[in-house]
Amino acid sequence: MSDLILLLAEHGGGRVRLPTWECLGFAQGLASQLKKHVVTVVLGKDIDSICAEIAAGQQQSVWKVSAPELESYNPDYFSAALGQIVQQARPYAFVFSHTYRTIDFAPKLAAALDIGFISDVIRCRVEDGRLLFLKSAFHDKLTAELSFCVGPPYLVSIQIGSFPADAAQRGGNAPVEDKFVDLSAVPNRRKMLQIVQALKNQVDLSKAEIIVAVGRGIGKRENLKIAEELAAVLGAEIGASRPLVDMEWLPRDRQIGSSGQTVAPRVYFAVGVSGAIQHIVGMKNAAFVVAINKDPNAPIFKIANYGIVGDLLEVVPALTEAVKQQRAQSA
Amino acid sequence: MKIVTCIKQVPEKDTRFELNTEDSWIKEQDLTYEINECDEYALEEALRLKEKHGGEVVLLSVGSDLAERALRRGLALGADRAILIVAPREEISDPLMVARALRAQAQVEQPDLILTGVRSDDHAFAQTGTMLAELLHWPHATIVMKVETDEVGKTLKVQRELEAGLLEEVALALPALLTIQQGINQVRYASLKGIMTAKKKELRRVDWISLGLSGGKKIQIERIGFPKSEKKFEIIGGSPEHAAAVLVEKMKKEMKIL
Ligand SMILES: Cc1cc2nc3c(=O)[nH]c(=O)nc-3n(C[C@H](O)[C@H](O)[C@H](O)COP(=O)(O)OP(=O)(O)OC[C@H]3O[C@@H](n4cnc5c(N)ncnc54)[C@H](O)[C@@H]3O)c2cc1C
Ligand SMILES: Nc1ncnc2c1ncn2[C@@H]1O[C@H](COP(=O)(O)O)[C@@H](O)[C@H]1O
C-alpha cells in the first residue's frame, strides 16, 4: 500500500467541475493530517487542457489516464479504468465527489475490488489513527458516523458543498504523468444514445424575490390553496419540494433542489418542507429563510433564520391574514 | 418477463427519532414502518412491465422479521410472491453485505430484470443496487426516470437523471439491473381485493446463516446522532396569530418585503 490519496477530477465541456476543487481541498486536508500525498486522476480522451488546469491549481501530481473508450462517460469503462489504477497504485484512499456520475460507477468499482465505500460524507475526523466519516441518514434527520472494517484502500465520496472549494491550495505547477490502462477486453454493455433536456422551464424561479415553497407537509392537494393565498398577498412565486412534483400536484418547473431549479430569493418560506440536502442545495443562498414545520427537529431549521413550530394549516392562514392587515394599515 | 424488485422497510418519514442507549441505532420499539420511498416507485414500474409483457414480480428484502409488513403491502399492490432474508442489523449496515445476500437469492430466481431504489431513506448509501449488478456481472443504469422495453422484452431503453434537468438516454440488454428514482411514475393504491389476496400469497423466509456468505463486512456504523445546527435561528412561539404578527414585523423591519 502506498501513501497516496487519489481523487478523481470531474470535467465536462472542456472544464474542470467545481466539486473537483472541493474534493481536492478535502484530500489535501486529510493528507496533511495523515502525512500522505495527493494525486489527481483525470480520465478521458484529449484531456491535456484539463490536466493543465488542475496542474496549475495544485502542488502535487496529476495522472492523465487517456483512452479512446473514456471519451464519454460509461460505467463499464470508468470502473475498469479506475480498478486498474487502484491495482497499480494501491492507494491509501480514493476520493470522489458524490455526484450523479459517482453514484453510477463507484459502488460498482467497490464491489469489483471487494472493498468498502463510504458515500456522501459531510465530515471526517481521525481518532486514534482511525478514520471516522460522518454522513446524513434518515432523511437528514440524523447523522451516522461510519468506519472501515478493512482496508486500505478506502473509497470515499464527499457531499457536494460540504467542503469548501477555496480550501484547496492553489497555485503551483504539478507534473502531469501518463498512466496507462487497457480497456480493450472490457465489453461496453451500456450504449449512450443521447442527452435530452427533461423539460424546458416555463417559469424561471431564479429571479424571484420571494418564494413560498411547499413540501409534503401540506398533506392534501386541496391544501395547496392556503400556500397560494400566502404567495398571492406577498407577490411571491410558488416553489415545491420534489415529492409534490413527483405526485403531479405541481408542475416540474416549480421544483427546487439538486434536480430542480436553484434559487436565491430575498425571502424563502419553507412550508412543510423537511429540508433534505437535495432541497437545501437549491435554496441555501436565500437571504432569509422562514421555516414553518410541526417538527422542531426538522433539518430545515438548521438553515432557517426564523422558525415557527406548528401546524402549517393553522400558521399559514394566520400569516396570510396578518400580511393582509399590515397591507391594509400601511395603505 | 421475470422481475425481482428489492424493497427495504424503513421507519415512516414523519417519525420523531430517539436513539438507543449506546447511540448505535434508533430506538425501534413502537415505530411504524413503510416501504422505502423509491422502492415503491420501483415496484410500480415492475408491475407495469408485468402488465405489458406478462411474467412475474418477486419481492426481495433483507431485514428483521418486522419487514414482513412491507412485503405484505407489496403483495397487496400486486407482486406475486415475496422472499424475506432475515438478517441481524449489524450485518446489513454495509451495502456490500446486503448486495451479497440479494445476489444469493437472485441466483436462485434467475430473473430477467432487477429493480431497486436509488437510495434507502435510512442509510442513504445509494450503493446497494449498483453493487448487486456488479456481483452478478450484469449491466446497470442508476437514477432511472423512464423505462422502455422492446416488444419481446429483450432490450431496454432508459432515461437516467443527470444534474441540471438533463437526462441521459442509454440502451442495455437484459438481464440488467436498474435503480429507480422517485417520481418515475404515479404509484397505485392497494385495492381491497389486493389486500385480501396478499394474505394468501407466498412469503418465503430465508435465514441469513443459511446463505453462507463469505467476505465479511467492509464498513460499519459506529454511532448515530442528531445533526448540529451551524446557524442560530430564532423560534417564534405562541399562538399561530401571535407568531404571524411577530413574523410580519420581521418581514417589515428586517427582511424589508412589506
Ligand atoms: C438523486 C435525488 C435527487 C433529488 N432531488 C431533489 C430536488 O431537486 N428537490 C427536492 O426537494 N428533493 C429532491 N430529492 C428528494 C429529497 O431527498 C427529499 O426526499 C425531499 O426533498 C423531501 O421532500 P419534503 O420535505 O417535501 O417531504 P418530507 O421529507 O416528507 O417532509 C415533510 C415535512 O413536513 C412536515 N409536516 C408534516 N405535516 C405538517 C403540518 N401539518 N404542519 C407543518 N409541518 C408539517 C414534517 O415534519 C416534515 O418535516 C432528491 C432525491 C434524490 C435521491
Ligand atoms: N435490506 C435491504 N433489502 C432489500 N433491498 C435493499 C436493502 N437495502 C437496500 N436495498 C435496495 O437498494 C436500494 C439502495 O439502498 P442504499 O444503497 O442503502 O441506499 C434501496 O432503494 C433498495 O431498493
What do these coordinates show?
The complex is a heterodimer of chains A (331) and B (258). Chain A is 28% helix and 28% strand. Chain A has 331 residues and is of the alpha/beta class. In chain A, β7 and β8 form a beta hairpin. The longest helix of chain A is centred in the last third of the chain and has 19 residues. The termini of chain A are far apart. The mean pLDDT of chain B is 95. With 258 residues, chain B is an alpha/beta fold. The interface between A and B is large, with 98 and 86 residues. Flavin-adenine dinucleotide sits at the interface of chains A and B.
Give the SSE layout:
The complex is a heterodimer of chains A (331) and B (258).
Chain A: E1 4-8, E2 11-12, E3 15-16, H1 18-34, E4 37-44, H2 48-55, E5 62-66, H3 75-89, E6 93-97, H4 100-113, E7 117-127, E8 130-137, E9 142-148, E10 154-158, E11 176-178, E12 190-197, E13 210-214, H5 224-234, E14 237-240, H6 242-246, E15 267-271, H7 277-280, E16 288-293, E17 306-309, H8 312-330
Helix pairs in contact in A: 3-4, 5-8
Chain B: E1 2-6, E2 9-11, E3 33-35, H1 37-53, E4 56-63, H2 68-77, E5 81-86, H3 95-109, E6 113-117, H4 128-136, E7 140-149, E8 155-161, E9 166-173, E10 176-180, H5 192-198, E11 203-207, H6 208-211, E12 219-225, E13 234-235, H7 240-253
Parallel strand pairs in B: 1-4, 1-6, 4-5, 5-11, 6-10, 7-10
Antiparallel strand pairs in B: 2-3, 7-8, 8-9
Bound molecules: flavin-adenine dinucleotide and adenosine monophosphate (AMP).
Flavin-adenine dinucleotide sits between chains A (139, 215-217, 219, 241-243, 255-260, 272-274, 276, 278-279, 282, 293-295, 298, 311-313) and B (13-14, 118-119, 143).
N- to C-terminal separation of chain B? 60 Å
Helical segment tally of chain A? Answer: 8
Q: What is the name of the CATH superfamily of chain B?
A: HUPs
Largest interface: A-B, 98 and 86 residues
In total, the number of strands of chain B is 13
Strand fraction of chain B: 25-35%
Number of strands of chain A: 17
The average pLDDT value of chain A, as a whole number, equals: 94
The global form of chain A is elongated
Mean pLDDT reading of chain B: 95
Largest sheet of chain B: 9 strands, mixed
Write the CATH architecture name of the largest domain in chain A.
3-Layer(aba) Sandwich
Number of helices of chain B: 7
Quick one: CATH superfamily of the largest domain in chain A?
HUPs
CATH classification class of chain B: Alpha Beta
SSE ordering of chain A: EEEHEHEHEHEEEEEEEHEHEHEEH
If you compute it from the alpha carbons, what radius of gyration of chain B comes out, rounded to the nearest whole angstrom? 21 Å
CATH third-tier fold name of chain B = Rossmann fold
CATH classification class of the largest domain in chain A:
Alpha Beta
CATH fold-type name of the largest domain in chain A: Rossmann fold
Order of helices and strands of chain B: EEEHEHEHEHEEEEHEHEEH
